[in-house]
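Today's session is about reading a structure prediction critically. Students often jump straight to the picture, but the first step is always the sequence itself: look for stretches that repeat, for charged clusters, for runs of hydrophobic residues. Only then move on to the predicted structure, which in these notes is written as discrete structure tokens rather than atom positions. Here is the chain we will use throughout the hour.
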Amino acid sequence: MAGNRAIFDRAMEQYREAARQGSWDDALKSAVRAVQEVGQDVDARTAVAVALFQTQKYERALQVFDELRAADANNVFFLDYIAQANERLGRGPAAATAYRALAEQHAGRRTPAKEIAMHCVARCAFSPSKMSYACGWRCALRKSVQPARPPASI
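Below is the predicted structure for this chain, in token form.
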């Protein structure tokens, strides 16, 4: 019977334990069970999306993260997974757009992430063929920014 909070809580705990152990197939099953009980729970839907991503079901993970982001457009966690899923699917322009949006969201906050994002956008060497960044932090470069070597301090 859907809506059973005890089953939902147990399924979410099983998801967390399986995820900690790296058993993503089991984590996915538990997260799906939680969604069956409480279908609109954001934590459960996020758990499903993360487990789909971790089991390399990128297309479906992207769909769920897009749905989640539609309800919370400023959620950088969702946006980061959207960027990574697009990257893994070989959708370079979509990944770059998402990484750029992610960097811009971080840059708009007054947190250390602002400095990281701005550093990466301005300074990190970009490899278009691999969609990777030399500084190790995922962010997008604007087309007008020329790739540069990271400073020696990194």
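Discussion point for the tutorial: The two ends are 54 Å apart (CA to CA).
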